[in-house]
């Protein structure tokens, strides 16, 4: 197999460069001379995550598709800590990304099964207060393109970045209580009635009909103390009546000859 570099990272003070190679080795190099200092052995699949510690120049984190997460002392070429992302009943989960906190006391990883893994010092009780499953209800909504080739949300016909803040739901699309909806940026100060999503029945790709969040209130309605605009409702009603009249006139208008044959008839 021809060796290929899959990822590269400098340490905190730029004295060392670490490269991940597709033969599952990590190599530590002197960044000034280019001298190979260490081969770091431990991964069993390709590595696409190399993350330097924010202030300790000795520490480098690596994670890969084999589910392994290593913390290395790159000055000595040794392992400091190791974690294997085993998921009960599903084998291991490939680790796709990792990031240190600014204080270097914690790091978070995401895996191929949609899990967020948080490591660090201290107590885990604060994290036990939030649900195990958290998704935005718009995460898997289909997108379309308009005539200008801009992306729009298929259901609302809006640009995704202009849509109101989404709701938090579980993996089945069931919304979480209002106290969790305030965790979403943009909903921190909403009244309780604006934190209850609109539910409806939708068909899944396999034909099963399930109850899910199908819509949400507009940005104006999400603001505390505001009621739906009466003027907007009147405009929509007038437009609907006009469309109905236009359709009726078109149906009653004479139809022209078809293919140059026959005489016009009144509908």
Automatic annotation (TrEMBL):
<feature type="repeat" description="WD">
    <location>
        <begin position="1"/>
        <end position="39"/>
    </location>
</feature>
<dbReference type="GO" id="GO:0007010">
    <property type="term" value="P:cytoskeleton organization"/>
</dbReference>
<dbReference type="InterPro" id="IPR036322">
    <property type="entry name" value="WD40_repeat_dom_sf"/>
</dbReference>
<dbReference type="GO" id="GO:0008360">
    <property type="term" value="P:regulation of cell shape"/>
</dbReference>
<dbReference type="GO" id="GO:0006357">
    <property type="term" value="P:regulation of transcription by RNA polymerase II"/>
</dbReference>
<keyword id="KW-0677">Repeat</keyword>
<protein>
    <submittedName>
        <fullName>BRWD1 protein</fullName>
    </submittedName>
</protein>
<dbReference type="Pfam" id="PF00400">
    <property type="entry name" value="WD40"/>
</dbReference>
<feature type="repeat" description="WD">
    <location>
        <begin position="40"/>
        <end position="82"/>
    </location>
</feature>
<dbReference type="InterPro" id="IPR052060">
    <property type="entry name" value="Bromo_WD_repeat"/>
</dbReference>
<feature type="region of interest" description="Disordered">
    <location>
        <begin position="239"/>
        <end position="267"/>
    </location>
</feature>
<dbReference type="InterPro" id="IPR015943">
    <property type="entry name" value="WD40/YVTN_repeat-like_dom_sf"/>
</dbReference>
<feature type="compositionally biased region" description="Polar residues">
    <location>
        <begin position="249"/>
        <end position="261"/>
    </location>
</feature>
<dbReference type="InterPro" id="IPR001680">
    <property type="entry name" value="WD40_rpt"/>
</dbReference>
<dbReference type="GO" id="GO:0005634">
    <property type="term" value="C:nucleus"/>
</dbReference>
<dbReference type="InterPro" id="IPR019775">
    <property type="entry name" value="WD40_repeat_CS"/>
</dbReference>
<keyword id="KW-0853">WD repeat</keyword>
